[in-house]
Amino acid sequence: MAPGPCGHCLNKPPAQQQTHSLYRYHGPIREAILNWKLQGHEAAVRWMVEQALPGLREQLDSNCLLLPVPMPLSRMRKSGQHHAANLCRWIAGGTGCLWDWRILRRIGEQPRQSALSGQARRKNLRKAFAIADDYRLCWQDLAPDLEHQIKSVWIVDDILTTGSTLHYAARACLKLGKPVNVLSLARTSLKG
Fold first, then answer.
1. Is residue 3 one of the residues assigned to a domain?
2. Residue 116's CATH number
3. Distance between CA 9 and CA 182 in Å, rounded?
4. Which of 60, 63, 68, 106 could make a disulfide contact with 84, Cβ separation 3.0–4.6 Å?
5. How many domains does the chain have?
C-alpha cells in the first residue's frame, strides 16, 4: 500500500503515529483471510506473514511491543481463536519483538464492526478499550526492565476498514507513555 495519510486522517488525525498494512484486502488475499477467520485454515495467512517479514524487520525490532486488538470473549470462545494474537505471535517470532495479549483489554461486548456503518463503528468503540490496571506486572513477566526497554507499541489487527477499531485501541494505549503505531494484515480499499 502507498505510504502517506489519507484525506480523512489529514482532517482528523488518528491517535496512532503510524499506520501500516501489509496487504490490500482484495482477491486472493481476501479469500485467504476469510478462510482463516471462518474456517480456521491458517496456512495461506502464515505464508503471507512470512513473505512480509523482510519489510517488517525494517520497522520492528526487540524494542517494539506488539499488542493484539482484543476480541470480545464470546466471539473468541465461538471461533476458538484470537486472530490478532496469532498475528502478533507469528510477527514477533520473525522479528524479535515482544508481544502480550493481556495489556490491552476489551471493555464490554459490542456488536460486530462488520455489520455497522463508518459512523456507527466509531460510536460503537469509543469506550471499548482500556489498558489493564496491572500492565506493569505484565511487562515484568515479559522481561526485566521492559518498561524502559520498549521504545514503541504496535497494535495489531487482521483487517483495517474504517480505522475506528485501531484508533480507539491506540487512544487507550497512549496511557503507556510510548509512541503508538498500528499494523494490520490487510486494509480495505479506500472509497473515494
1. no
2. 3.40.50
3. 14
4. 68
5. 1
pLDDT greater than 50 at residue 192: no
> In the block, which residue shows the cell 494505549?
173
Most confident by average pLDDT, 2-6, 125-129, 131-135, 183-187 = 183-187
83: phi then psi, degrees, rounded to nearest 5: -60, -45
- Answer whether residue 125 is part of any domain: yes
Per-residue pLDDT, averaged over 9-20, amounts to 82
List, in order, residues 6 or more apart from 160 with CB less than 8 Å away.
19, 21, 166, 182, 184, 186, 187, 188
pTM of this structure: 0.85
* Average pLDDT of span 47-62: 96
Distance CA 25, CA 31 (A): 9
* Owning domain of residue 41: 14-187
CA–CA distance, 44 with 62 (Å, rounded to integer): 26
